[in-house]
């Protein structure tokens, strides 16, 4: 008998879950844990690793090649301005630069006391910014010389920049803080001229409670930003960092990296295989982790429907996961609660009518993401999706109407 098994927990979800999930890529052996990842387009990406390791892909993660960096120290952050030109930074002041896609690297370390370089942003092969300690450094000649663009001048007795995030080539944020016996605090500085000058923004405060040291940061737009602290709280700004509110607390685990593909839709990764996504600005999160052994250091989406998470497996070896989803994540909105029926069904599934003034389509996808059926939907009009010719197996039924979408998993038997 042919029937559909409806997974009710997904049918009543207020947000649409992805039709596909994360799949393991195959980085070359011999590397240690990965620390960061950045893509310049859908094909070209780079990942940094502990003990001087580097990875490169030129085919969207299908294959990864190991690149010699020439440095033994751990690398922390990577950013490329084009497929061939970029900078990587790491421990003991290390800054390396390539202009030939990683075939060769030049050392342009900071003159320092051995402190780590935590963040990097590359405007071009010659213009770049890095953070070290309580300072932001800038180069305009490919790293030949570095000048101090900003030194922290706030109230904290000890301060270290950890993150460097740019929304546009002109508008960017640097985030850091202090952690010690007296607690922890995070502060943000902002630039509107590409990093030439910086302005200290107010302390991150929500309900009178100072944000602890930042663990992950994302700024998807000029006004929208997110900071996850070490206390498993998420803070959000909608006015460019002037004020912050508590968006979520203890509902997403610990984050070491975040990336938002829109003002309210984003992903966070962390330890014990933690991968989460949100479509409501961090108020609620949905788990997507594939195991509890991995530790993910960062996540990056070159496109709203394609992303990469990097970190380590249980043995501290490199781990790369790729997310592909043929359909963008959208809020359910007025489609929440729509359920196809009957359950079980034999030869057809009845599709519920859309709310008034909305039209759209129903799409049935196989478990591997292939579209197998499509059906137009009209407002206030019920219709049926014929399923008699489908082989038994797991399917996902997605209903879309404008900016809204909802979906449910179905099993044909």
Please give a structural write-up.
The chain has 413 residues and is mainly β. It starts with a strand and ends with a strand. The longest helix is centred in the first third of the chain and has 4 residues. The strands form ten sheets. It has a five-stranded antiparallel sheet with strand order 1-37-36-33-34. The chain is globular and about 70 Å long. It has two domains: 92 residues, Immunoglobulin-like, CATH 2.60.40; 303 residues, Methylamine Dehydrogenase, Chain H (7 Propeller). The relative contact order is 0.14. It comes from Hymenobacter aranciens. InterPro entries: BNR_rpt (IPR002860), PSII_CF48-like_dom (IPR028203), Secre_tail (IPR026444), WD40/YVTN_repeat-like_dom_sf (IPR015943). This is YCF48-related protein.
Topology:
Blueprint: E1 4-6, H1 8-11, E2 22-24, E3 34-39, E4 45-49, E5 54-57, E6 65-67, E7 75-80, E8 86-90, E9 95-98, E10 106-107, E11 117-122, E12 128-132, E13 135-139, E14 147-151, E15 160-166, E16 172-180, E17 183-191, E18 199-200, E19 205-206, E20 209-210, E21 214-218, E22 225-229, E23 233-237, E24 245-249, E25 257-260, E26 266-269, E27 275-278, E28 286-287, E29 295-303, E30 306-312, E31 318-324, E32 348-351, E33 360-366, E34 371-377, E35 383-386, E36 393-401, E37 404-412
Antiparallel strand pairs: 1-37, 2-31, 3-4, 4-5, 5-6, 7-8, 8-9, 9-10, 11-12, 12-13, 13-14, 15-16, 16-17, 17-18, 19-20, 21-22, 22-23, 23-24, 25-26, 26-27, 27-28, 29-30, 30-31, 32-35, 33-34, 33-36, 36-37
